[in-house]
Design a protein that fits this description.
770 residues; alpha+beta; eight-stranded antiparallel beta sheet; seven-stranded antiparallel beta sheet; 38% helix; globular
C-alpha cells in the first residue's frame, strides 16, 4: 500500500506542476449519473475539474488548496456536447460520456461553457505524441482561432506531426505502433470467431490467420527483455487450432520466427544469434541519430563477437558487446541457495547472501559489475551509483520508528529470493545456439536442423508411447522440425538467419489479469523452493493481459488435460492413471517408470502447495494437464485466493486435491515415493512460511483497490482474502508444530469426500472425466 500511495502522491504532484504551468481548470457544478440510493435525491455538487494529458480529472477542492483526486475519465473517444434542451433543466449544462462514464456539469455562463467544451474537444482530439496545449486564459478567442488556423495550415493533418519526427524517433514510433497493431490483429481474430458457428470456426480460422498482415519488425511479446530476440515474420496458417467453448473461442497460432538476422546496415551490418530483446531494441532504436557512425572494415572481427562502437555525448568511444556469457552473470558467482531441512537432516538453515554489498559503515561498495556490465543501461547504472547511499545519521535519528505489532504473530525476516528464469543450462558447444529454454527444433542459417531433448531417465520408446497418447504421435520437437522443413521447401525460409517455430494461444472475452497475478505468485514460490534446494517442480508459463477482455498465453507443448487423456480410445478401462503409467513407461521396477513416477510426485508436491497456499479452486480434470514425462500442470486460475464455484456452498473443502488415483501412481500410502511426497511437502511448506513476508506484501499490493474477482465483492473484498492467506501460512503457529500441521493437511486431503463430489458434479454437468 505504501508504494501505491507513493505513486498516487506523485500523480497529484504532477497535476500540481501542470496546473502551475497553465493547465486548464476550474470549478463546475457536477452530477454523476450513477445512483447509489433509490430513496435519496441526487444533488449538484461543486467540484474542481482539470484537463490534461487527454484526461478529465475531478477533485474535491482546487489543487492549490491541497485537493484530493476523486475520479478521472479518459477523453479518448468521449462524446462532448451541450446537454439537449429536453434534458437540460438548468442553463449552461453540458455533458461528457463514454462507455464507462457519464458526467453532467453546469457552467456559470455561456462563455465558460463554450470554453470548457472547446478545451475538452481539443484534448480529446489531440495527438498522443504531442498532447493538446491549453491556451492561456487571458487570450481572446480570435487569437486562438488565428493560431489554430496557422497551425492547421502548417501541419495540414496529424500525418505532418509524424513527418516532423527525426529518423530515430520515427523508427521507434513505427516499431511500437506496428507491435500494437500486430497484437490487436491477433485478438481480433479470436473475437471475430467467437460470434461464428462452432463448425465454421475451424474453417474460418486458418483463412483469417493467412490473411493477417504481419509488419516487418514485430515479435511475440510472451517474453522478457533478457530473452532472445525472435522476429515473427510469417504465420503457419494451416496448423491453426480452435477450441470451442460456450462463451469464447481460444485460438492456437503458429509463427515462423528468426534470430541472428543482420542489422544496422548503416554501420556495416552485424549478426548475433544470442542478441536479446533489450539489446536489439537498444541497438536498433535507442541510439541517437548523431551517435550513429559507420563500422570500418578493420572492425570486422568485432562483428563476429557482436561488438560495435558508439560515440557518447562527451565524445568518448565505447565498445558495447551485444552478448555476454553465462560466466559473466553476477548470479553465477553468488550463492543464493539455502537448505530447508527434511526430517533426517540438520535443523540449521543456510542464509542467503545479501544482494547489495556494503562496507562496514553501510555504504554501498563500488561493484565491478557497474563498470563491467555490458548489458546494463548506463543511465540506470549512474542512477544506482548516485542514489543508493546510506542515510545520514543525523537524519536517520529523526525518522519515526515504526511501532511494533501487538499481534501474537510470528515475525518472519525478509529474505532475498532470486527469481528464477526458465533457462536451461547448456554445454559450451550448444550454448550459443540452443539457449533461452528452447524445447524444440531450430533451423540454422546453413539449413541444418538441431533438436534439444530433455534427459531425465525416460527412454525413447516410452516417450514415443506417451507422445501417441498426448500429442497424437508427434511431439513438439518433431512437429517444429516438420514445419521448418516444409517452410524451407516452400521457400519461406532462407539462409540469412536461424529460424524457429513459436506458438501461442490467443483469447478474447476473458479477463486474464487475475491469472497473471496467480502465475506471478507461482513463479515466486518456484523460486522459493529452488532457493531452499528442494527438487519441487512447477511449470511457469507466460500470460500477457492486453486489455480487460483479451490476452495471450504461452502454448503448453507436449501436454494434454487429464480429461482428454482419459477419453482417449486406448486409455486403460480399469486401473486409472496407475495402469496408464505402467502401460506407457513399463513395469514398476524399470528405470523409465521410476523416472516418470518421480516426475509425477515432484509436480504433485509443487501444485499441492500452491493450491493450498493460493487457495486455488475449480480443480477438475479439465484444468489439470499432464505431459509426456508424467508431470502435472495446473491451468485456469479464475478461482483463486479462496474464491470457489458455489462460494459458501462449494464442495471443494479439502486443502488440496489428493485423490486415490494420485496415490496409486505413487505406489500407495506405504510406498517410499509417497513418504518422499510427505517429506517434500512439509519442507516446502516450511520454506514458503519462512519467506512469507514477501508473499504477503505481494498479495497486499495487488489487492489494493483491485477489481480482481478474488479481491472484490462482499465475500472476498476488504482484507478478507489477505487474512485468509495469512491464516493458511499459519503465522500464529509455533515453529515446532509446523511439520505436524503440514502432515495434517495431507491427511485432510486424502480421498476427500468433497473432492469426489465435485469431480462427480463436473462429470455430469460438463462431461469432465474423473
Amino acid at each position: 500500500q505504501a508504494d501505491r500511495r507513493f505513486n498516487a502522491e506523485q500523480l497529484t504532484n504532477n497535476q500540481k506542476q501542470l496546473l502551475e504551468a497553465g493547465m486548464f481548470g476550474g470549478n463546475l457544478l457536477y452530477k454523476r449519473l450513477v445512483r447509489t440510493s433509490r430513496c435519496s435525491r441526487k444533488m449538484w455538487k461543486t467540484r474542481y475539474f482539470t484537463v490534461s494529458e487527454r484526461m478529465l480529472y475531478c477533485y474535491n477542492i482546487p489543487l492549490s488548496a491541497g485537493g484530493r483526486l476523486i475520479r478521472a475519465m479518459p477523453l479518448e473517444g468521449a462524446v462532448i456536447m451541450k446537454t439537449p434542451a429536453s434534458d437540460a433543466k438548468y442553463h449552461f449544462m453540458f455533458e461528457v460520456h463514454n462507455l464507462n462514464y457519464f458526467f453532467r456539469m453546469r457552467a456559470a455562463n455561456v462563455e465558460e461553457m463554450t470554453q470548457w467544451i472547446q478545451a475538452l474537444e481539443g484534448e480529446r482530439d489531440s495527438h498522443t505524441l504531442y498532447p493538446y496545449q491549453i491556451g492561456a486564459p487571458n487570450r481572446s478567442n480570435d487569437d486562438e482561432k488565428k493560431e489554430d488556423s496557422e497551425a492547421a495550415a502548417k501541419s495540414g493533418s496529424q500525418s505532418q506531426l509524424i513527418k516532423d519526427l527525426t529518423p530515430a524517433q520515427k523508427a521507434r514510433y513505427d516499431f511500437f505502433k506496428n507491435e500494437r497493431e500486430f497484437n490487436r490483429n491477433l485478438t481480433n481474430i479470436a473475437e471475430t470467431l467467437r460470434f461464428q458457428e462452432r463448425d465454421a470456426r475451424k474453417v474460418l480460422a486458418p483463412k483469417m490467420v493467412a490473411e493477417m498482415t504481419i509488419p516487418s519488425c514485430v515479435y511475440i511479446p510472451l517474453c522478457n527483455s533478457s530473452h532472445i530476440w525472435r522476429r515473427a515474420y510469417a504465420a503457419i496458417a494451416s496448423n491453426t487450432r480452435v477450441f470451442n467453448t460456450n462463451e469464447r473461442c481460444p485460438v492456437v497460432m503458429y509463427f515462423l520466427t528468426r534470430r541472428g538476422e543482420r542489422m544496422q546496415y548503416a554501420r556495416g551490418g552485424m549478426k548475433d544469434v544470442n542478441l536479446d530483446v533489450a539489446e536489439y531494441l537498444h541497438l536498433q532504436y535507442e541510439v541517437p541519430d548523431a551517435a550513429m557512425t559507420p563500422i570500418l572494415e578493420e572492425d570486422s572481427d568485432n562483428l563476429s563477437l557482436g561488438c560495435f562502437e558508439v560515440v557518447d555525448e562527451d565524445g568518448l568511444e565505447r565498445v558495447i558487446e551485444s552478448s555476454s556469457s553465462l560466466d559473466d552473470h553476477p548470479m553465477k558467482h553468488t550463492s543464493h541457495h539455502s537448505s530447508v531441512a527434511l526430517w533426517d537432516e540438520g535443523e540449521e538453515e543456510k542464509k542467503g547472501e545479501d544482494a547489495l554489498d556494503r562496507d562496514g559503515d553501510g555504504q554501498l561498495k563500488e561493484s565491478p559489475s557497474f563498470e563491467r556490465g555490458t548489458k546494463a543501461n548506463p543511465q540506470l547504472r549512474n542512477f544506482m551509483k548516485e542514489n543508493f547511499v546510506r542515510i545520514p545519521s543525523k537524519i536517520k535519528a529523526r525518522l519515526p520508528m515504526r511501532p511494533k505489532s501487538k499481534k501474537m504473530m510470528t515475525q518472519m525476516p525478509i529474505q532475498n529470493v532470486p527469481i528464477l528464469e526458465n533457462h536451461i543450462e547448456d554445454d559450451e558447444e550448444s550454448k550459443s545456439v540452443l539457449s533461452d529454454g528452447l524445447h524444440g527444433s531450430i533451423m540454422l542459417s546453413d539449413g541444418e536442423v538441431l533438436r534439444q531433448m530433455e534427459n531425465d531417465g525416460i527412454d525413447e520408446e516410452s516417450l514415443s508411447r506417451a507422445t501417441a497418447f498426448i500429442c497424437g504421435g508427434e511431439d513438439w520437437a518433431k512437429r517444429s522440425e516438420r514445419l521448418l522443413r516444409e517452410g524451407s521447401e516452400a521457400k519461406v525460409i532462407d539462409n540469412e538467419a536461424s529460424t524457429e517455430v513459436s506458438a501461442l494461444m490467443v483469447k478474447s472475452n476473458d479477463d486474464l489479469r487475475q491469472e497473471v497475478f496467480v502465475m506471478q505468485m507461482i513463479h515466486y514460490y518456484k523460486s522459493v523452493f529452488a532457493k531452499a534446494s528442494l527438487p519441487i517442480w512447477l511449470k511457469t508459463y507466460r500470460i500477457l493481459s492486453l486489455s480487460k477482455d483479451t490476452g495471450l498465453i504461452e502454448y503448453l507443448i507436449d501436454s494434454t488435460s487429464i480429461d482428454s487423456l482419459k477419453k482417449s480410445d486406448n486409455f486403460p478401462k480399469e486401473g486409472g492413471l496407475r495402469a496408464y503409467f505402467e502401460m506407457i513407461y513399463g513395469a514398476p521396477d524399470t528405470k523409465s517408470f521410476k523416472a516418470a513416477q518421480r516426475n509425477f510426485m515432484l509436480s504433485l508436491v509443487g501444485y499441492s502447495l500452491v493450491m493450498y497456499l493460493l487457495g486455488l479452486k475449480d480443480r477438475h480434470n479439465g484444468n489439470i494437464m499432464i505431459d509426456v514425462r508424467g508431470r502435472l500442470i495446473f491451468i485456469d486460475f479464475g478461482f483463486a485466493m479462496g474464491m470457489a464455484p458455489g462460494h459458501e456452498f462449494s464442495f471443494e473443502r479439502a486443502p488440496f486435491k489428493l485423490t486415490q488415483d494420485y496415490i496409486d501412481v505413487m505406489g500407495g500410502k506405504g510406498s517410499d515415493c509417497f513418504k518422499e511426497f510427505k517429506r517434500l511437502f512439509a519442507a516446502g511448506f516450511e520454506a514458503a512460511r519462512a519467506n512469507s513476508q514477501i508473499a504477503v506484501g505481494l498479495v497486499e499490493i495487488m489487492m489494493y483497490k483491485s477489481n480482481y474477482p478474488c479481491f472484490s465483492g462482499p465475500r472476498y473484498g476488504g482484507d478478507k482474502a489477505l487474512i485468509n492467506f495469512q491464516n493458511r501460512l499459519m503465522l500464529r503457529t509455533p515453529d515446532k508444530d509446523i511439520r505436524k500441521r503440514a502432515l495434517g493437511l495431507i491427511e485432510d486431503s486424502i480421498e476427500s469426500y468433497g473432492t469426489w463430489v465435485y469431480d462427480r458434479f463436473q462429470l455430469f454437468s460438463n462431461g469432465y472425466f474423473m
